Amino acid sequence: MIRKLSPLFALFLLLGAAGPLAAAGLRFELGFGWTLVAPRLNATYISQYSPPLVPQDRFVASSATQTVHFNGKTSYGFNGFFNLFFTDNIGFQVLADYHRPGIGGENAPYEGQVQFLDYNDAVRTEELSSPWPNSAGNLAETTFSFNALARFRLTDNLDLSVSAGPTIFNFEGKAGYIGYTELELVLGDLEYTLTGMTYQTVVALDPQTKYGFNLGVEAAYEFMRHVVLALDLRWYEAPSANVQMHIVDDPIYPVPAEQIEQTIGLGQLTIDPSYMRVGLAIRFIF
């Protein structure tokens, strides 16, 4: 929630600075808009571990493996910005964006195998297989950019702007599903029956901060005096981050989430926070 409100908080600070800037005779602009975001998230996680079985004295060996795909979905967002001009054409821009794209991805079945001693102490092998749902979740991302800005007047009411500069990327999220299986042998009439449950766990992605840059072009039309409608296209680029995952606890799990993490050897997921967006904004000239 704090990261989601950060762009609005920054915009309120800029509004507070509007009075002194106007008094100093500097030309500045404030605006906000809506964005259509195409994230570059395209991550794959391979899980391999040995599912536990009780009673342990009947256990010989076990294995489970799955490949889970996490792909970012196109989503909507919003932004706010402040432009300060030192000359008619050259200025400085502070830009804040927020979006929360969904996560999807098709996955192959969850596969495994277990070997155990049957009632006669002979080794018995059972195959494990479960169809696996599509991935789900979201990746919340806030970016702050500090750009050099150049504007070119095309007609009395139409102009073209180019801006670029460094960007701070903050992101975190939740995603599913990574499998965890617990197995049990139930003794019947002179034989063991294999039972168990496979859980579809949700993982949290630790908050991350990365540094990159952005580049954008904007076409704007002044449809009212000092009120402008702007359409922009912008690229955001940052290095990928290896993000540690943690199981989100759920009362249906038979053991604590931390124990599940240790059993399956839950690792890191490589997240690319880069994205491209199209924005529609209203800009006010002061």
Explain what the structure shows.
The protein has one domain: Porin (Beta Barrel), CATH 2.40.160. Helix content is 10%, strand content 66%. The chain has helices at residues 2-23, 257-264; strands spanning 27-39, 42-49, 53-54, 59-72, 75-85, 90-99, 103-104, 110-117, 123-130, 136-153, 158-187, 192-224, 227-237, 241-247, 268-271, 275-285. It has an 8-stranded antiparallel barrel with strand order 1-5-6-10-11-12-13-16. Strands 2, 4, 7, 8 and 9 form a 5-stranded antiparallel sheet that branches. Strand 11 (158-187) and strand 12 form a beta hairpin. 30% of the residues are buried.
Summarize the structure.
This protein is mostly beta strands. The protein has helices at 2-23, 257-264; strands at 27-39, 42-49, 53-54, 59-72, 75-85, 90-99, 103-104, 110-117, 123-130, 136-153, 158-187, 192-224, 227-237, 241-247, 268-271, 275-285. The chain has one domain (2-285): Porin (Beta Barrel).
